[in-house]
Amino acid sequence: MSPHPLLTQLLTPNRYAVIFAIKGVVAMALALFVSMALQLDRPYWAMVSAIFLQIRPESGLVIEKALCLIVGSAAGGGFGILVLALLTPYPLLALGLLTLWIGLNSAASSMVHNLNYIYAFAMAGMTAGLVVILVMADAGTTNSQAVFTIAQARISEIATGAVCAMLVSQLLWPVTVKDGLRVNARKVINSTLAYLKLELEPGSSHKQRHQHADEILETLVAVNDDSSAVTYEGPEGSGRGRAANLLCNKVMSLLAVTQIMGRFHRNHGDLVSPAFSEVLSQLRRYFGEIAEADSYQEGYRLAHELRRSLLEQRTGFRNESAIVTRLTRTALELVSDLVVVLRAYNALESRDRTLLKAPMLETHRDPLVGLINGFRTAVIFGIGAIIWIQTASSAALMIMIMPVVFSVMFARFSLAELTPILRRVLMGATVAIPVALFFGLGLLSWASGNVELLMLVLAGPYFFGLLALADRATLPYGLGFCIPFTIITQPSNSMTFNAESALNIALGLFVGISILYWVFKVITPPDSRFMQRRLLRSTARDLTVIDDHENPENWFNGRMGERLLRLANYDQSSESSERYMTDLGFTGLNLGHVSIRLRKLIQDHRSPTVDRLLKEWQQTLAETYLLSARGVMNPGFRKVNARLLEAIHAQGDPDQKTVVVEGMFERLALTMERTARTVAEATGQPKLSSAETESLA
């Protein structure tokens, strides 16, 4: 039986974890020292701020996170002042408006993927709550000047902790985003090459291909998120950020093109000619060699060698079918994208001014998910507010504050991921309570006003808490321990040992996190199949407007990145072996690229008639895609293909490009028909009659 990951991390930590924990202890000690020296009212909020910055402590990420915390706190403090200025005589209305603000921030956090931006929304909700609730708790002695002072104090405390953690990150054993970015970029390139090779292997399994695709998508999103933080790391940072964005964008193009090649030879082997079989063999061999190359220069040379080899093979084609001609061109496009990916990887270290700028992958924004997350967080705050109103207990303040922060932070996780995370946070808090009560306060009560002794007492518990925070698997334990421990002990210049008050705060935190756990269990998004259908409909909508954008390939890749990851995550959580929804996502990615390439191929054959039929074709393509996702074939799709091809031929004699277009249409029709059959079989649908198919189409 393997040991628990938390015990492994605490008893046998690696060198990185120890350095990380030491840096974290120094950052929190500095935050405490500075806030006490500045005579701030609640120095422990500076320490809480410093704790948040220990999650992913690379210098660029810490700077970005610090800015997000400060901006979010300023926004929350400003809103808190506004609420009190307008509604101080009406406390229930003030609480209602504050609940709405917290819900809106939670909903907005669902519309971003970057964790640092999510912290900004969490701080905006928390700071507003602190300002309003602390004033309302002592409304009889509070005036407008005191309201502003409280808001200023909360913002100052959070900003102090953020700045101190940022300084320690920069000065003490700095770790850069750039290093991790190159590791992840290399990982995603190798995974993509392995996936490309696997797609072209006749004996590869569906499960193997999806395992590689899942790994690529997860790493790709990680590279995309880090590309914004690397811009803070010196003058070369912005160039590295652009290179990372370009790499992500072109990997998406590789995935789209590979889908064509892999599915064709697996499902239509009778159409694979000997010449095209040789093309596939060349691709498999070179992809393996590029993955094994020990330098960028060697990989780049092999990629160019592969491109020359494919050009020579295409020159020797005789009487090949239109679809083989098209797919050979697709193979060349694939290699061209691979060359750009390798150059983008090299630009993460060496500046390359010739690379084109590409946008970041976009976050998929689903208003329904935002509405559910916003409502859930508002319910958590509302429960705490009701308990506070009914009991007037100071412990209820913690029920209203910290669970809200965790709710915003964890909103983007699926329920399958979230359940173990919340359990570990709750376990960390359960351990923090006795440690804070019997060890922390027992010793800290003798150290009031003596900052050196305070730091000495706090260093031990924080060191072990930060060791847990250093590893992704044990991070929730560390978060659940460090924050409650800080809020219960509340180190400051004039701290006193009050067992009753500390016990009330501990009870409030425990109850608040328990409420958080159960509200997340009760208020959940719709089932995964429903959410996947929404993702597919969003893809179909994008297909209909793909021609409205100046750079459609970059735009579409950016839109599809996280969308594919969500489809894959939903499939994984459903524990279905079919994974056909993920396949449908990749089909949608492929259809977008086919649409873009079609417009390039017929550029010399455009006319008002062609443009009209092209628009009709694009709409029919999106409709056929959604029908195939329901297991229904659309017989009208081939008819639209034929009308558009006829109009293209009417604009000039057939040439190599029109032959490629003919092959493209045939391949698309085969793809749609195969997809409909696969979905129908996976869902156990009865075979439809031709009349039923016509009516649905």
Outline of the structure:
The protein has 697 residues and is mostly helical. The protein is built from 26 helices and no strands.
Question: Can you give a write-up of this model?
Answer:
GO terms for molecular function: transmembrane transporter activity. The chain crosses the membrane at residues 16-38, 66-86, 92-110, 117-137, 157-177, 368-389, 395-413, 425-447, 453-470, 477-493, 505-524. This protein has 26 helices and no strands. It is mainly alpha-helical and 697 residues long. It folds into three domains: 5-176 and 364-522, no CATH class; 177-232 and 234-349; 549-683, no CATH class. Helix 8 packs antiparallel against helix 9 and helix 9 crosses helix 21 (552-574). It is elongated and about 90 Å long. Residues 688-697 have low confidence and may be disordered.
Helix content: over 70%
State the order of secondary-structure elements, H for helix, E for strand: HHHHHHHHHHHHHHHHHHHHHHHHHH
The mean pLDDT is 83
Number of strand segments = 0
How much of the residues is beta strand, in percent? Answer: under 5%
Unreliable parts: 688-697
CA radius of gyration is 29 Å
Number of domains: 3
Overall spatial form: elongated
Span from first to last CA? 56 Å
| Biggest sheet overview | none
Number of helices: 26
Structural class: mainly alpha
Question: Keywords, please?
Answer:
single chain, 697 residues, mainly alpha, 3 domains, 26 helices, 78% helix, elongated, disordered C terminus
